[in-house]
From TrEMBL, chain A:
Component of the gamma-secretase complex. The lineage of its organism: Eukaryota, Metazoa, Chordata, Craniata, Vertebrata. This is Gamma-secretase subunit APH-1. The keyword Nucleotide-binding does not apply. Keywords: Membrane, Notch signaling pathway, Transmembrane, Transmembrane helix. GO terms for biological process: Notch signaling pathway; protein processing. It is a multi-pass membrane protein. Belongs to the APH-1 family.
């Protein structure tokens, strides 16, 4: 326990996301603002879901644990649906704001493109989701204790960290795919995003059998990563050029001929 | 309130986050330019800066002035506008975040600031250790009324002092309060930190540390210093003040006071008869800078020439930032508290007609705003120990600040920075604490993820 677990789990959970933030978002103030706004939207969706859950719990039989569990599952499903709804609402808001700015500026270029917005808002959702899931657990891991002393799993902390990592990255990919689908009116893609989110959340119902939840989650993560990459305009050719440092941006930046 | 800037202004910055709905914006530029001779722009600029400064005060945010720049095409202008606007939002996000981080870190580690040993400020005489809920509520409301009245009285007192040109008195008051803050409160803070971490320390070393810290702080605040050092001191004293409030305000009173202060801020900045507004108007009439104090400014303003005859002195030009902070210090003394902050709102920079070197003016935020944001987040961290609540309040406050800056860009006049943020913060605090916390705790217990 203590410091090693705390730092290890923190870096596992937030490392990639923090790196993404630091290298791609922190330099541009507009992106930071949209990130925080995305986080705020996620928070509001959680608030509504919690409100509904709370009301149903108050009305239910508090003694029956199976009923409470069923209500919790209902809460999870509702929360996922609300999150996606708020993602859509954020998309609409951003489109309106961009349209307004565009109308005023009489220019063709917007200060931030829809794809960047998709990435940033997805990451915002991810940050907030990850933070709310894991921060309390992390703060508990600093103190003394024995994990799973009552027979629960001993891998609680590390599995939480990995799950959080997956969720944050997934939110980012979902954001990219979702916005792209909304832009092109491909509603089945939107449905697929919602379905995969539900799938990942429902997989966690088998915890603490982590093989049943973590492995499929990471598979979904890989699939979504590929999908988001292609939605963002990537392709095998681009990837090859980028990795061999022959892509246009790199060449321009380094003044080399192709 | 529009800035009318003469054509000779070289820079054109707009700090509007979003351009206002002005398809007429191009015509505005054309219209105003020919109307102003050399003296008027100067006058208008004074007025403008004063008004902005005035509104900025404790609860205020002042936008940098806008300038017209003939050659820059509108479209590019707009894009620049959005980018500059975003830059200014971030320039305020960073110090606000830093202040909150300092406060939350202290609250979570140093238990002194969360211990309640029955000591209370004289401004909140009614105790909350009563048996019935109704009595407790009543006591907290009474405490709030007393606190707010003290603040109002102080503000009015300061406005009166300013009206009758008692600058030396105000100056002395500010110096005294910053002395107290920089030396005494930081000594207390250091002592508590040492106690928490069980660090052995001797008095001569402490004396040296505190002396250096305080002396440099006084110099930075009242005279000259590197911008970032000044900003750092500003953040530190806001955090110290917030910690004092968190310690000494009783539970319920603190929440009611936060709510009441936002309402008061709204009234003081926007109503025609509000003390702050009167202060600004007085300064405008006299064509002199308002006492810059208690304002965090994100950039240093470069002043060429001096057109300010007030005895706020030439040092006021440089010390604008310092005074800003200074007035903030005033807040330390319980007596001064908010009114002081409000009083000394507004950076007042004198402009001369030949000034062309004005840099991007950045945005100004009153230190009182820093303090109350930090009080809210600190109290969220102190009660319950739930990090989700703290995070939620933090995000809510930042979004509120963002919206305020957006409104600032739209309306182009100084606005109170407290109401929106504190409202969001309060709503999210109570809802997260009561609704989200049980939900998330249940989810974490079963390791369900949403």
């Amino acid at each position: 326990m203590a410091a090693a677990v705390f730092f290890g789990c923190t870096f596992i959970a937030f490392g990639p996301a923090a790196a993404l933030f630091l290298f791609t978002i922190s330099r541009d103030p507009l992106r930071v603002i949209f990130l925080i706004a995305g986080a705020f939207f996620w928070l509001v969706s959680l608030l509504l879901a919690s409100l509904v859950w709370f009301v149903t719990v108050q009305m239910s039989n508090k003694e029956s644990s199976s009923q409470q569990k069923a209500l919790l599952i209902f809460g999870v499903v509702l929360s996922v649906l609300l999150q996606e709804l708020f993602r859509f609402a954020y998309y609409k808001l951003l489109k309106k704001a961009n349209a307004g700015l565009l109308a005023i500026s009489q220019e063709d270029t917007m200060p931030i493109s829809v794809r960047q917005l998709a990435y940033v808002s997805g990451l915002g959702f991810g940050f907030m989701s990850g933070a709310f899931s894991v921060v309390n657990i992390l703060s508990d891991s600093v103190g003394p204790g024995t994990v799973g002393i009552h027979g629960d799993s001993q891998h609680y902390f590390i599995s939480s960290a990995f799950m959080t990592l997956a969720i944050i990255l997934l939110h980012m990919f979902w954001g990219v795919v979702f916005f792209e689908a909304c832009e092109n009116q491909r509603w089945w893609s939107v449905g697929a995003v919602v379905f995969s989110h539900l799938l990942v959340s429902c997989l966690t119902f088998v915890n603490p059998q982590y093989e049943g939840s973590l492995i499929p989650t990471y598979l979904v993560l890989c699939v979504m990563a590929g999908w988001a990459f292609s939605c963002a305009g990537g392709s095998l050719r681009n990837l090859k050029l980028c990795l061999t440092c022959k892509d246009k941006d790199f060449l321009l930046a380094n003044h080399r001929p192709r | 309130m529009n800035t009318s800037d003469s054509e000779e202004d070289a820079c054109n910055e707009r700090t509007a986050l979003v351009q206002s709905e002005s398809p007429s914006l191009p015509s505005y530029t054309r219209q105003t330019d020919p109307q102003h001779g050399t003296t008027e722009p100067k006058r208008r600029r004074h007025a403008n800066s004063d008004t902005e400064a005035g509104h900025a005060a404790r609860g205020g945010v002042a936008a940098p002035r806008e300038r017209d720049s003939g050659p820059v095409p509108d479209g590019e202008d707009e894009e620049l506008t959005v980018k500059y606007g975003a830059k200014h939002v971030i320039m305020l996000f960073v110090p606000v975040t830093l202040c909150m981080v300092v406060v939350v870190a202290t609250i979570k580690s140093v238990s002194f600031y969360t211990e309640k040993n029955g000591q209370q400020l004289i401004y909140t005489p009614f105790t909350e250790d009563t048996n019935s809920v109704g009595q407790r509520l009543l006591n907290s409301v009474l405490n709030t009324i007393i606190m707010i009245s003290v603040i109002v009285v102080m503000t009015i007192f300061l406005v009166v002092l300013y009206k009758y040109r008692c600058y030396k008195f105000i100056h002395g008051w500010l110096i005294l309060s910053s002395l107290m803050l920089l030396f005494w409160f930081s000594y207390m803070y250091l002592g508590e930190v040492f106690k928490t971490y069980n660090v052995a320390m001797d008095y001569p070393t402490v004396a040296m540390i505190i002396w250096n810290f305080g002396a440099v702080g006084m110099i930075c605040i009242h005279w000259k210093g590197p911008l970032q050092l000044q900003q750092a001191y500003l953040i530190v004293i806001s955090a110290l003040m917030a910690l004092v409030f968190i310690k000494y305000l009783p539970e319920w009173s603190a929440w009611v006071i936060l709510g009441a202060i936002s309402v008061y801020d709204l009234i003081a900045v926007l109503c025609p008869k509000g003390p702050l507004r009167m202060l600004v108007e007085t300064a405008q009439e006299r064509n002199e800078p308002i006492f810059p104090a208690l304002i965090y400014s994100s950039t240093m303003i470069w002043m060429v020439g001096m057109a300010n005859p007030s005895q706020a002195s030439d040092s006021a030009d440089r010390s604008a930032d310092e005074e800003v902070r200074h007035s903030e210090d005033v807040i330390l003394e319980r007596e001064e508290a908010e009114p002081e902050v409000q009083m000394h709102r507004g950076q007042n920079r004198s402009y001369s007609a030949e000034e062309e070197l004005e840099e991007d003016r950045g945005v100004k935020l009153g230190l009182g705003d820093f303090i109350f944001y930090s009080v809210l987040v600190g109290k969220a961290a102190a009660t319950g120990g739930d990090w989700n609540t703290t995070l939620a309040c933090f995000v809510a406050i930042l979004i509120g600040l963002c919206l305020t800056l957006l409104l600032l860009a739209i309306f182009k006049k100084a606005l109170p920075a407290l109401p929106i943020s504190i409202t969001f913060g309060l709503v999210f605090y109570f809802s997260t604490d009561n609704l989200v916390r049980p939900f998330m705790d249940n989810l974490a217990a079963h390791q369900y993820y949403i």
